[in-house]
Amino acid sequence: MKQRLIFCYLGITFVVLAGCQSGNILQNHHLGDNQASKFLDDKFNGYKVISIETEIEIFALSAEMKTMAKSISLECDVRKKATKLLEHFLAQKTSI
């Protein structure tokens, strides 16, 4: 009975490991040398290459925002931090 259980565990382990290995092979399959052709974007009507912002451009902060963030982070009380943050954004909105 114990041997049968061990063989069952070994069989299940083999199937799981073999399945993971074959899944990885399918995910890395290419349609050609050019990665852009993988999705066949150029086959759609009106397809255009669109430039996408980088992480640096998306998360860039101005010097004013860095200063504001530092001044708020020095505050220990969460309520005061929230108040300062709201005051900053509301003051900015009314000046626009």
What does this structure look like?
- With 96 residues, the chain is an all-alpha fold.
- It folds into 2 domains: 1-31; 59-96.
- 61% of the residues lie in helices and 0% in strands.
- It has helices at 2-27, 55-58, 63-73, 78-95.
- The longest helix is centred in the N-terminal third of the chain and has 26 residues, at 2-27.
- It is flat.
Key traits:
2 domains; flat
How would you briefly describe this protein structure?
This protein has helices spanning 2-27, 55-58, 63-73, 78-95.
Low-confidence stretches: none
**Overall pLDDT level:** 79
**What is the percent of helical residues?**
55-70%
Q: What spatial form do the alpha-carbon principal axes imply?
A: flat
Report how far the terminal alpha carbons are from each other. Answer: 79 Å
**Domain tally:** 2
Number of alpha- plus pi-helical segments: 4
- Largest sheet, described in full? none
Taking Cα atoms only, what radius of gyration do you get, to the nearest Å?
Answer: 28 Å
Alpha-beta classification: mainly alpha
Strand residues, percent: under 5%
The arrangement of helices and strands along the chain is HHHH
Topology, number of strands: 0
